[in-house]
Amino acid sequence: QVQLVESGGGLVQAGGSLRLSCAASGSIFSINTMGWYRQAPGKERELVAAITSRGSTNYADSVKGRFTISRDNAKNTVYLQMNSLKPEDTAVYYCSLGKGLLLRSEYWGQGTQVTVSS
Fold first, then answer.
1. Nearest-CA neighbor of 8 among 97, 98, 92?
2. CA–CA distance from 49 to each of 63, 71, 72 (Å)?
3. Using CB atoms within 10 A as the burial measure, which of 20, 26, 62, 102 is most buried?
4. Other residues' Cβ atoms within 10 Å of the Cβ of residue 63
5. Alpha-carbon span 60 to 69, nearest angstrom
6. Among 6, 84, 77, which Cα is nearest to 38's?
């Protein structure tokens, strides 16, 4: 079974930065896309960013220019560099593995809390 280990969440002031990491273990040869969803209190889960095994990326409009997704295929790890954070970025961020640029999810991490104070 696939296991996703997330790290990097925390509390940061508006304008600050965080870097989320997600390391995947197990048999993931059939998975070609990694990425991040987030869910804020009272809101639906939304796709934040996704990256395919070849490096194609997809970002939510709300984070374009501020967030950067990357991956290290040798380490089966995906990263989300979050800069210029805003209070509206506050959410639980979930690492996910799936298919396509829309990240049809097959596996999920447990989530990591990101809180941005004003």
1. 92
2. 8, 12, 15
3. 20
4. 22
5. 11
6. 6
pLDDT for residue 29:
66
Q: What share of the chain is helix, strand, coil (3-state, %, to 5)?
A: 5, 55, 40
pLDDT recorded at residue 32:
83
Q: What is the mean pLDDT of each run of 10 residues along the chain (118 residues)?
A: 94 98 84 92 96 94 98 92 98 95 91 97
Q: Between vectors from CA 20 to CA 87 and to CA 113, what angle results, nearest 5°?
A: 50
Cα 103 to the center of its chain, rounded Å:
11
Q: Which tokens sit at 68?
A: 């950067």
- The residue type of 107 is Y
Whole-number Å distance between alpha carbons of 112 and 97: 16
Q: Residue 83: exposed, middle, or buried by beta-carbon count in 10 A (0-12, 13-18, 19+)? A: middle
